[in-house]
């Protein structure tokens, strides 16, 4: 009953998130050097990026574990954690101090993968329960 497309998406999302994290970190450093980035906002933006990385690791681990063991509890918890990751991604898309076009593009891709992943998680949970 394990979902192969979901497992593939976990792998792809893990690779993409490494790129996302490094690109966002580089852009925050770039913005702090080029623009007049308020010091009061630099630390929270960096902290939120690292919190998002921790949530992403948990989400991918629990989702992969739940899918491979065909247990709905870890997969459901992964789905809940995805909501927090989506909120943080929207923060980096809309509410951070400076939003570059590159921010919009990489966050749009990340939000698309979260949406697709969530749909596949719900389908997998429904298959495991029945």
From TrEMBL:
Classification via Pfam families: Transmemb_17
One GO biological process term? non-motile cilium assembly
Q: Name one GO cellular component term.
A: membrane
Compartment(s) where it occurs, according to its Swiss-Prot or TrEMBL record: Cell projection, Cilium; Membrane
Transmembrane segment boundaries: 6-30, 42-62, 74-94, 106-129
The alphabetized UniProt keywords are: Cell projection, Membrane, Transmembrane, Transmembrane helix
The annotated topology with respect to the bilayer is: Multi-pass membrane protein
| Record-given protein name | TMM80 protein
Q: Which organism is it from?
A: Chunga burmeisteri
Gene name of the encoded protein:
Tmem80
């Amino acid at each position: 009953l394990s979902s192969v497309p979901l497992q593939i998406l976990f792998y792809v999302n893990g690779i993409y998130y490494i790129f996302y994290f490094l690109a966002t970190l580089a852009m925050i450093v770039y913005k702090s050097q080029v623009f007049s980035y308020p010091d009061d906002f630099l630390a929270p933006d960096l902290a939120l990026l690292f919190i998002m990385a921790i949530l992403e690791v948990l989400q991918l681990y629990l989702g992969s574990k739940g899918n491979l063991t065909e247990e709905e509890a870890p997969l459901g918890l992964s789905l809940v954690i995805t909501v927090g990751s989506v909120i943080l991604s929207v923060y980096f898309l809309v509410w951070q101090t400076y939003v570059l076009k590159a921010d919009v593009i990489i966050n749009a891709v990340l939000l698309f993968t979260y949406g697709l992943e969530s749909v596949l998680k719900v389908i997998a949970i429904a298959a495991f329960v029945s």
